[in-house]
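Q: Hi! First time doing this. I have a protein sequence and I read that you can turn it into a structure. Is that right? Here it is:
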Amino acid sequence: MRNPKNAGIDEIVLEAQNLNVLLEIVTSNQEINKTQKDALLGMALNASANILFLCEAEEQRRE
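A: Yes, that's right. Below is the predicted 3D structure, encoded as structure tokens:
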């Protein structure tokens, strides 16, 4: 997502789906090593931050 504060609903839905998939991979796959898990968790953290920024921007728009 380029700019979560200006993202459309389609982009946010996709970001939430990506977050879901990343967390599912990390929690369900016992074969990935620590480095891979750390990288996937970093991507998940980034996705959750994007969603949080969108929620904050939406809250400001509604005020």
